[in-house]
């Protein structure tokens, strides 16, 4: 059951990233993220009473808040990367960093992984180099999608790498909550992220107004993301952490498929090989 929940979470995560990234291509990242996070807050508040009574401890709620802050920043950076870059490149790059972070954390805490996870980390670094390679004149263009200013989108690797750190910290923090906590950590998760981005928007005096179609995309992305979070939380509470993270980190597959099917994104031979290398790295890192 944990593996099935993880695969479903991966599918929802990938769809949420695609939807949010699509909205951010035509609107500022902060309003999109704030609206999507607020949608998640409303959704979890509605479904929370429908589940059996839980007994969260204070530590569970704090871990949820930490997950909200780190994950919220990670999502904002990811949406920015998806907006200015090629989704088929950004998604697997973020996944490599997100899944490598738990391994590096375990090493820092004294654990010594085998040669397979180490090989995965090296392969992940190689994949980032491969997907960041610009296509030669003989190779197809990176993408046919234009940005808000009308320029061809870039790879977006910088924000993607930082987004991977945020997502990795989110996965680590949410994995610390107990099974008895139920969905309550997701409530404090969204309260923390919504509060943070509200303050950020107020300090920067950013307008939160956007066209209805973009607001619909942001709300849809927030709902998909919260469903994915719930599935991941249940999966990590009943299954092995490494296996759950492995399967959840396959979310770029749905993002890439949606980007190719809807946006018609095309990659060079090197970048295509880099995407497959990134997926292989994810599997090796958490072997």
Percent helix, as a range, is over 70%
Biggest sheet architecture = none
Number of helices: 11
Structural class: mainly alpha
Uncertain residue ranges:
136-153
- Cα-atom radius of gyration: 18 Å
Report a brief summary of the structure.
The chain is 73% helix and 0% strand.
Supply database-style keywords.
0% strand; 287 residues; globular; mainly alpha
Q: What is the secondary structure topology, with strand pairs?
A:
Blueprint: H1 2-24, H2 29-47, H3 58-84, H4 87-108, H5 115-131, H6 157-174, H7 184-203, H8 212-238, H9 241-248, H10 252-263, H11 269-285
Helix pairs in contact: 1-3, 1-8, 1-9, 1-10, 2-3, 2-7, 2-8, 3-4, 3-6, 3-7, 4-5, 4-6, 4-10, 4-11, 5-11, 8-9
What does this structure look like?
This protein is mainly alpha-helical and 287 residues long. It has one domain. The protein is 73% helix and 0% strand. It is built from 11 helices and no strands. The chain has helices spanning 2-24, 29-47, 58-84, 87-108, 115-131, 157-174, 184-203, 212-238, 241-248, 252-263, 269-285. α2 packs across α8 (212-238). The radius of gyration is 18 Å and the shape is globular. Mean pLDDT is 81; it is low at 136-153.
């Amino acid at each position: 059951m944990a593996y099935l929940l993880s695969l479903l979470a991966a599918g929802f995560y990938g769809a949420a990233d695609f939807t949010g990234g699509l909205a951010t291509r035509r609107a500022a990242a902060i309003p999109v993220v704030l609206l999507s996070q607020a949608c998640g807050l409303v959704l979890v508040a509605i479904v929370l009473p429908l589940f059996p009574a839980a007994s969260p401890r204070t530590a569970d709620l704090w871990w949820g808040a930490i997950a909200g802050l780190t994950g919220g920043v990670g999502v904002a950076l990811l949406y920015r990367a998806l907006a200015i870059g090629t989704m088929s490149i950004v998604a697997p790059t973020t996944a490599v960093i997100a899944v490598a972070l738990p391994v590096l954390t375990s090493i820092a805490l004294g654990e010594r992984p085998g040669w397979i996870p180490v090989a995965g980390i090296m392969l992940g670094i190689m994949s980032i180099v491969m997907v960041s390679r610009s296509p030669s004149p003989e190779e197809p263009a990176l993408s046919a999608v234009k940005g808000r200013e009308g320029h061809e989108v870039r790879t977006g690797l910088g924000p993607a790498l930082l987004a991977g750190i945020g997502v990795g910290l989110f996965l680590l923090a949410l994995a610390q909550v107990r099974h008895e906590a139920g969905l309550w950590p997701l409530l404090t998760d969204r309260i923390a992220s919504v509060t943070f981005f509200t303050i950020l928007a107020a300090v920067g005096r950013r307008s939160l107004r956007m066209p209805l179609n973009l607001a619909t995309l942001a709300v849809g992305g927030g709902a998909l993301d919260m469903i994915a979070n719930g599935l991941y939380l249940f999966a990590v509470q009943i299954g092995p952490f490494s296996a759950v993270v492995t399967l959840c980190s396959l979310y770029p597959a749905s993002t890439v498929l949606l980007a190719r099917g809807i946006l018609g994104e095309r990659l060079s031979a090197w970048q295509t090989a880099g995407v497959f290398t990134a997926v292989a790295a994810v599997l090796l890192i958490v072997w």
